[in-house]
Amino acid sequence: MDLMGFDSKFKGRFGRPPRLYVKALALKEVCKASLRYAEGLCRMYLGVRIPKSTLHYWEVRHGDIVEEVLRALFRLLSLMDYDYSVVDSTKLTDWLKGLHELFIDVRVRSGDALSPVHAQLTSSEVEFVEGIPSGSGIMLGDGAFDAKPVLNAIASREYIPMARRGSVDLAT
Fold this sequence. Notes:
By secondary structure, the protein is α/β, with parallel strands linked by helices. It has helices at 6-9, 18-30, 35-46, 52-61, 63-79, 125-130, 148-156; strands spanning 84-93, 99-109, 113-121, 138-141, 160-163.
């Protein structure tokens, strides 16, 4: 589907539909991934291999289009009806026993419907929270999010932060 003639503006200049490259770069930006990692994301989620050199070309030459798409996407996410948001993280190990931390922001609607709005592999709660789209209402988090810089970043995104104090000692 060619909405509003987007692909026809670039007709004959590229091997694949230009909207595919815009989707790939939007996926890269939402996941806050490097170009090398974005190449794997494209293969996994879009079903095609797009070399990092091609992604770099589109990022440099047509980055304004991707920015507009992301702006519209985040605007739509901020308009979505939900009751509250939850942020959480979990640590994962890879095959080489390297430790990675996955952060996720989920919006919860009545009836237990979950809508993930932001996910990122990082080691910093502050860096993750700065990428969350603006919203409203309460945002729940565990003890990992109970730090002044994290709570201030959540509040700057127009949420009411509620984090559990400290960590839980299961031995007592």
